[in-house]
Amino acid sequence: MTDLIKVSYDSDRPTVLGRDLHQFLGVQTPYAKWFGRMCEYGFTEDVDFATVDKNVLRADGAEMPQIQHDHQLTISMAKELCMLQRTEKGKEARQYFIQIEEQWNSPDAIMQRALLIANSRVEKLRGENKQLQAANAALTVDKQIMQPKADYFDQMVDRNLLTNFRDTAKQLGIKPRTFTNWLLEHKYLFRDKHSKLMPYEAKNNGLFEVKEFVNEKTGFASTQTMVTPKGRETFRLLCEGM
């Protein structure tokens, strides 16, 4: 898609600069006057746009820069401004913004943003959990002579952070069977020849971890798919409203 107007993705939604749109539309009215007139159509600051001040060189050549007012517009506001111009340029820009919105709201884009949020929250959770576990284990760590301290803490934290599907569903406020069926329907899991739930490798991406369990008394060994903290955060975002 050709970038007709630069779009910023620095906030929680895409925006464009008002002066960039003003220039593309070829509006002859000075920007400040034009924007003030456009705001009379009911646009609200901090909802539809945010004011941005920047220093620019003065037209008279003076060394002291002057402050220029600009605005970060939501795509929704930008589309309405394009419609108000009633020009071919306005129509072209509006179609461009519609494509931006469709791309932003596509399933792949939503999933990518959900994973980014999940990664951020997991890192925070992991740091807090390590601190808590370290404090609780301070009295017993000296007994772990056969294991390095760092390995002991990491294994303890990882084990406590993993949850099975039933416990994960309870944390998400979803019935376990409903949650499992959703994972199967959306191709996150499949059942192997022994009817065990296993993750699809292509969609795992750190959402699941397959753990091996051994019964020391009987020698019976098996595996179980567990949900990671990243998985819980991801599915919490994707399963809201279920």
At a glance:
This protein is an alpha+beta fold. It has helices at residues 18-25, 31-39, 75-85, 88-104, 107-136, 149-161, 165-172, 176-185, 201-204, 229-238, and strands spanning 15-17, 49-56, 66-74, 189-191, 197-199, 208-214, 221-227.
How would you characterize the overall build of this protein?
- By secondary structure, the protein is α+β, with helices and mostly antiparallel strands.
- The protein has ten helices and seven strands.
- Strand 6 and strand 7 (221-227) form a beta hairpin.
| Largest sheet: number of strands, sense, barrel closure | 3 strands, antiparallel
Could you tell me the radius of gyration in angstroms?
27 Å
Q: Helical amount among residues, as a percent range?
A: 40-55%
| Number of DSSP E strands | 7
Number of helices: 10
Show unreliable segments: 148-158
Outline type? elongated
Distance between the termini: 35 Å
Secondary structure category: alpha+beta
Order of helices and strands: EHHEEHHHHHHEEHEEH
Beta-strand proportion: 15-25%
| Residue-averaged pLDDT | 83
Topology:
Layout (H helix, E strand, L loop, with lengths): L14 E3 H8 L5 H9 L9 E8 L9 E9 H11 L2 H17 L2 H30 L12 H13 L3 H8 L3 H10 L3 E3 L5 E3 L1 H4 L3 E7 L6 E7 L1 H10 L4
